[in-house]
Amino acid sequence: MLLSEDEGKSIEETLFLTSIPGYVEKLKKIKNNENWTKALEYQKDETW
Questions:
Q1: Side-chain half-sphere of 10: how many Cα atoms within 13 Å?
Q2: So what's the pLDDT on residue 3?
Q3: pLDDT tens digits for the chain (48 residues)?
Q4: What is the 3-class SS of the chain, one letter each residue?
Q5: How big is the CA angle at 27 (ends 41 and 11), to the nearest 5 degrees?
Q6: Does residue 28 contact residue 34 with C-beta atoms inside 8 Å?
Q7: Whole-angstrom Cα distance, residue 36 to residue 24?
Q8: Would you state the pLDDT for residue 46?
Q9: Which pLDDT value is given to residue 36?
Q10: Segment (H or E) for 27
Q11: Residue 45, CB half-sphere, CA atoms under 13 Å: how many?
């Protein structure tokens, strides 16, 4: 299997975050309990 550097880093980040006890469950709870009707889609060129 051949991956780009960005893909490899994304997989590494996912594995790290999912290894944190309770992390995935907390994200699922937030996803199901928040009001997403006014949420905006992420834009790469957006400044914070």
A1: 5
A2: 93
A3: 899 999 999 999 999 999 999 999 999 999 999 988 888 888 889 887
A4: CCCCHHHHHHHHHHHHHHCCCCHHHHHHHHHHHCCCCCCCCCCCCCCC
A5: 75
A6: no
A7: 18
A8: 86
A9: 85
A10: helix 23-33
A11: 0
Six token digits for residue 2: 């051949």
Integer CA distances (angstroms), 18 to 14, 38, 44, in order? 6, 27, 24
Cα–Cα distance measured from residue 11 to residue 44, given in angstroms and rounded to the nearest whole number = 20
The pLDDT assigned to 6 comes to 95
Residue type at 29 in one-letter notation = K
pLDDT at 24: 94
